[in-house]
């Protein structure tokens, strides 16, 4: 059983001679002005939820782009700050992007080309040549900032996600002995989909500069190996799950990402969460007997529209739940500079209003949309209060909302309704209620089944998922990844 302590001991014992650096576009802690005061907010994202405990255990450095309006006012002359604020245990180094760079790199190539390319949700990728140039510029800046930290040291560099596909090559060009890995947090598409990418060779060569590539599940590993076979003259070893390209060997491995089960369960019992739970009935306008919950960044891959359509069908098929059932959707707004995201936000609101008009009676209406970012205590409080958690992603590498809900459900009364198109569905295939988000009738029936399930069955399902999650926690994920890195010494 991997724990925070055992991971700390493993890192201290096995990596004492190495500098350990994580790099990602998103930073784990954001400094913002609140009036004239500066507050530090922990970013709520799957990547941060997963990696912050690892960094607290390792005491390394996290390199990320600054995003808060007070970020530059709190760093030292080297753009560094110790985090988390309440218990400083590792270094955050911020890099700065101009608006043009952020627009081209992040809103452009990363999220209008690579993101839709990797998710099978029928959103057409946009490959813009100027966006690609900014993408290369920012990848090189990340690489240069990392090189500044490791120029004379042995190191492990752990790159994160589709934003940094080129960084390993730029680092290896100047420091060939650096041990570099990348974890791909989203699905890897099949070869037929990936082949449309105009910059596919540069991206694949950048990825193959890593010594270790991690994906969530075997299926994504196989898609990547097949892509390499189709696109490059490389030796693909299917038995070893490795690729040799121009004399360099890259291991490809599945690492299903997870959460800090014990930490979340402990926090879920805290006085702050207990107090937040007492406030929930006052913050949800319509009265309810059954509370269903959705927690997502507003994104077309998350199936929020399909989720609300399923609720429409549920209330239509099973009118006995009208006046009793409320669905609360928290959706933090993101990427609002991209046209498709603006349209999605408007679409969600329009559909919710349509359904509320259709079924609303007196003070009751069925769909509540809150486009806000919750503090973490409120986040966990809503998980505890919900009878159902609806995770209806159209395509998802893993989905950590599902795992957070399980960890926070200390009363063992909640039910997880989970899209079969998530990586998490492979871990909880028997315990969660699996749905096809494209099938509103089947989704509606799953909601009814979950509501009418016996308390004993709910408890048994939740206990099994919690046991699986406790055994396969974030420290086990990180420990396995780092163990594979150490084999490359």
Which terms would index this structure?
489 residues, alpha/beta, Rossmann fold, 2 domains, 6-stranded parallel β-sheet, 18 strands, 46% helix
What does it look like?
The protein is α/β, with parallel strands linked by helices. It is globular, with a radius of gyration of 22 Å. Strand 2 and strand 3 form a beta hairpin. The chain folds into 2 domains: 268 residues, Glycogen Phosphorylase B (Rossmann fold, 3-Layer(aba) Sandwich), CATH 3.40.50; 211 residues, Glycogen Phosphorylase B (Rossmann fold, 3-Layer(aba) Sandwich), CATH 3.40.50. It has a 10-stranded mixed β-sheet, with helices on both faces. Strands 15-14-13-16-17-18 form a 6-stranded parallel β-sheet, sandwiched between helices. Helix 11 crosses helix 14. The protein is 46% helix and 19% strand.
Percent of residues in helices:
40-55%
Overall shape: globular
The CATH architecture of the largest domain can be given as: 3-Layer(aba) Sandwich
The end-to-end span amounts to: 25 Å
* CATH topology tier name of the largest domain: Rossmann fold
- Average pLDDT, all residues: 94
The portion of residues forming beta strands comes to 15-25%
Strand order of the largest sheet: 5-6-4-1-7-8-9-12-11-10
CATH class of the largest domain: Alpha Beta
The largest β sheet comes out as: 10 strands, mixed
How many helical elements?
Answer: 19
CA-atom Rg in angstroms: 22 Å
């Amino acid at each position: 059983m991997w724990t925070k302590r055992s991971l700390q001991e493993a890192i201290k014992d096995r990596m004492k001679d190495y500098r350990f650096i994580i790099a990602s576009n998103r930073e784990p802690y954001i400094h913002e002005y609140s009036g004239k005061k500066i507050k530090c907010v922990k970013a709520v994202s799957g990547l941060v939820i997963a990696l912050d405990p690892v960094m607290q255990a390792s005491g390394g450095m996290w390199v990320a782009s600054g995003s808060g309006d007070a970020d530059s006012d709190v760093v030292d002359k080297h753009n560094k700050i110790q985090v988390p604020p309440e218990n400083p245990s590792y270094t955050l180094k911020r890099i700065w992007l101009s608006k043009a760079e952020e627009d081209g790199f992040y809103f452009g190539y990363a999220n209008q080309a690579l993101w839709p390319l990797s998710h099978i949700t029928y959103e057409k990728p946009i490959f813009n040549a100027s966006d690609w140039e900014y993408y290369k510029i920012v990848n090189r800046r990340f690489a240069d900032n990392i090189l500044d930290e490791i120029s004379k040291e042995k190191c492990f560099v752990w790159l994160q996600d589709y934003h940094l596909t080129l960084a390993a090559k730029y680092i290896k060009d100047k420091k060939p002995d650096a041990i570099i890995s990348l974890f791909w947090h989203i699905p890897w598409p099949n070869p037929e989909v990936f082949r449309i990418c105009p910059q596919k060779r540069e991206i694949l060569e950048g990825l193959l500069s890593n010594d270790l590539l991690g994906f969530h599940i075997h299926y994504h590993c196989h898609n990547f190996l097949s892509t390499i076979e189709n696109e490059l003259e490389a030796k693909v070893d299917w038995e070893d799950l490795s690729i040799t390209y121009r004399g360099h060997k890259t291991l490809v491995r599945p690492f299903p990402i997870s959460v800090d089960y014990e930490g979340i369960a402990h926090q879920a019992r805290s006085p702050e969460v207990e107090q937040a739970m007492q406030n929930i009935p006052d913050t949800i306008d319509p009265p309810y007997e059954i509370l269903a919950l959705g927690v997502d960044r507003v994104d077309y891959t998350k199936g929020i529209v399909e989720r609300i359509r399923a609720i429409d069908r549920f209330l239509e098929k099973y009118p006995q739940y009208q006046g009793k059932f409320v669905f609360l959707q928290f959706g933090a707004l993101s990427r609002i500079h991209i046209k498709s995201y603006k349209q999605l936000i408007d679409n969600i609101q329009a559909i919710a209003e349509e359904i509320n008009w259709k079924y609303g009676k007196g003070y009751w209406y069925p769909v509540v949309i809150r486009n806000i970012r919750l503090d973490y205590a409120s986040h966990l409080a809503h998980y505890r209060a919900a009878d159902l958690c609806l995770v209806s992603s159209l395509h998802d590498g893993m989905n950590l909302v599902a795992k957070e809900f399980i960890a926070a459900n200390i009363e063992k009364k909640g039910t997880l309704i989970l899209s079969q198109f998530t990586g998490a569905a492979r871990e909880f295939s028997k315990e969660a209620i699996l749905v096809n988000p494209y099938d509103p009738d089947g989704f509606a029936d799953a909601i009814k089944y979950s509501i009418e399930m016996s308390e004993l069955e709910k408890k048994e399902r939740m206990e099994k998922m919690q046991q699986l999650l406790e055994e396969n926690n974030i420290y086990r994920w990180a420990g396995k990844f780092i163990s594979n890195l150490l084999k490359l010494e």
